[in-house]
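For reproducibility, we list the full input for the adenosine-5'-triphosphate complex.
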Amino acid sequence: MIRLNGINRNFTVGDQIVHALKDVDLAIAAGEYVSVMGPSGSGKSTLLNTISLLDRPSFGNYELNGKNVTDLSDQELARVRRENIGFVFQFFHLIARLTAAENIEMPLILAGVDRNQRTQRVEQAIAAYGLGNRADHRPDQLSGGQRQRVAIARATIMRPGIILADEPTGNLDRHSGIEIVDLLERLNRDGVTLLVVTHDPALGKRAARRITMVDGAIVSDSLAGSTD
Amino acid sequence: MRAADVLLLVAKSIRAQRLRSALILIAMAIGVAAVIVLAALGEGARRYITGEFSALGTNLIFILPGRSETTGGQPPLLGETPRDLTLDDALALLRSPYIANVAPVVIGSAPVSGGQRERESNIMGSTSDLLAVRHLNLAQGRFLPEIPAQRALPVCVIGQTVRNELFGSRPVLGQWLRIGDRRFRVIGVLASEGQSVGVDFDEVVIVPVASAQALFDSPALFRILVETKSRGATMPAIEDINRTIEERHEGENDVTVITQDSVVHTFDVILTKVTLGIAGIAAISLAVSGTLIMNVMLVSVSQRTAEIGLLKAIGAASAQLKILFLAEAALLSLTGAAAGLAGGYAGALAVARLYPAFPITVPGWSPLAALATALATGLLFGVLPAARAAKLDPVEALARR
Ligand SMILES: Nc1ncnc2c1ncn2[C@@H]1O[C@H](COP(=O)(O)OP(=O)(O)OP(=O)(O)O)[C@@H](O)[C@H]1O
Ligand SMILES: [Mg+2]
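The corresponding predicted structure, in tokenized form, follows.
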């Protein structure tokens, strides 16, 4: 469902060119659980941003669900992103002035879903993520774990087929981290394709498929159970 | 994204940024209030002045000797006098069924003495009809008697200033006044008119028209004042006047006819334009608030970079972000404008309380114009910040925290 062919991403910094992604070929099937590891600056986030269509590759070809999405217009990109991809960030990125429920509701508003349906879906999500008594709290009244649960609820409210998580536990204590990973993995068991970028080897090892990047290139790509 | 949701989101964001929102609201409100108050003052001045003119007599027509060749509606200044207007011309007009009163007027200046003093004074010769036609009031005595216009009579009615300067506080009715080399008995004193437009009746000595003609040794009338029976009678009355004069002047219509309405109308047009001009200047202050809006919105965009990046990540198109920020600018300026409307009306009301004689009125177009200008500036100056928000690179925006 995700197919990257010869993806390159170059940044020009001053008179230098940084190759954040070098000839990346990657195919991920629906329902896979993939972890992406590698040293800082190796291009993990750039890879995720490319897959999420937030960033456009300098060269290369990207196919999503059999459709070439390399050269879509801004409008089309927004729609594809909204319908197919949920994003979970290290720093949660909740809107501070909105309550938990309102944050979760945002993608539905952008998609133009009507109010009744929105309320219903947000209520379900709040219950499903154990936020029942926190729905009307603002992000600064929530713990880190709770914030990330709100973020996951927001990422899944449009029922996307793919969840991309960039260091989802990077800002959490161990206990909350495990809780969040559990949530993400549960989503994966329900059929959602899950891509997790992490520095934590223990977390990386939980994925069925593990990708390692160095200097913008994929240097290893192995399945659990195979010898690495 | 639905319109109602856009409004809701924008309202939340406005509420979250109190100081910033308050700044914009105040700037907008001041601009709009200025437009409202200044337009109301201009409109009040227009009403005041046209009202003063109308008070002269609503169904008034002036006939001036000499044909003005101007084609438009502007009242002419003095034309040349090819043929004099005579007393008989004036009396002939009374045959028209549309004309109620006719007051022939002769005007000149002569030394006037009474008591022990002498002064140069304006002498007006007319008939008893002048009282009704010019809506004059008497402080003492009677006005000119109803005698045939051709008859001279040595009586006069004097204005307040003439009375004070010649007689002081002594009784004046029945006293003799010398005008030039003739003597007139004072039979009435005019009530002070204040500054009535046209002739200053405080400075005038009114005598029968035939006496004035003899005094100045000329049969020519300065003008004829005509009062029609009703406002609707003005047009047919003018036709009758033109026909009568043409008959009497050997087929030549050599007079100029001005209606009270046309004079009022001219002032009306001028003062309306002045009011629009003043309001336009006030509207410039709205443009100033527009630049303030732009600045504040730009700051807001840079403060909310992460939020904008996030919105893109969860599926907002650039166009949607543009709409959100434009709507924010529009809602802010409209709310400010609404506050300004309230303030402007309150200001107009306050002026009305302080100066009850001045007919201050908010003209109907001004709130609409102010609202439209506020909205337009809000949108115009919101475009740049909105475009900047829409153009933000989401990856960079999200990386910043
Ligand atoms: N906007 C940018 N401009 C210039 N260089 C960039 C930009 N974004 C990323 N890079 C560079 O691209 C390379 C890959 O960056 P990326 O953020 O993908 O690394 P990463 O693997 O996610 O690192 P980390 O583990 O620290 O998050 C780095 O060398 C980085 O400096
Ligand atoms: Mg990274």
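The CA atoms of residues 194 and 257 of chain B lie 27 Å apart. The pocket of magnesium ion (ligand 2) is lined by residues A 44-45, 166 (CB under 6 Å). Both points were considered when choosing residues for closer inspection.
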